[in-house]
Design a protein that fits this description.
Layout (H helix, E strand, L loop, with lengths): L1 E9 L4 H10 L4 E5 L4 E8 L2 H12 L4 E11 H13 L29 H9 L4
Antiparallel strand pairs: 1-3, 1-4, 2-3
Length: 129
């Protein structure tokens, strides 16, 4: 199961009409909106293809300017990460070592380019100290 949050943008004068259309379309769950014409909704699907079908329905609603996915959650992806955490030492060993003076620690990573959790912690544990 996938769940994604979407920000829908419309012109404020059509806000109430778009909100009602979103509530009635059956493709999403409405959560909130503001006076600037931004609407927060979520969609669910068994996979990406189903989510994209629902996104197309939302984009086709009259007066919708944009409908952009902001966050996505995949049950399968979460399950895989939980398995790594449950079956491995996700906390680098150095973080549990009371003898380490953290003021002398050198940063050796870039979180935007980090590997998967298991590879990251394995590399971190092998870092020269």
């Amino acid at each position: 199961m996938n769940i994604s949050s979407i920000v829908v943008k419309t012109v404020p004068k059509y806000l109430e009409e778009v909100v009602q259309s979103l509530k009635d379309c059956g493709a999403c769950d409405y959560h909130m909106h503001d006076e600037l014409g931004r609407v927060i909704i979520t969609i669910e699907g068994e996979g990406v293809a189903e989510e994209l079908e629902k996104l197309r329905i939302i984009e086709a609603i009259p007066h919708v300017i944009t409908a952009d996915m902001q966050m996505a959650y995949s049950e399968d992806e979460l399950d895989a990460h939980m398995e790594v955490i449950a079956n491995g030492d996700a906390v680098p060993k150095i973080l549990n070592d009371d003898r380490v003076d953290f003021t002398n620690m050198t940063y050796n990573g870039d979180l935007k380019k980090r590997d998967d959790l298991a590879t990251f912690t394995r590399k971190f544990d092998q870092t020269k100290r």
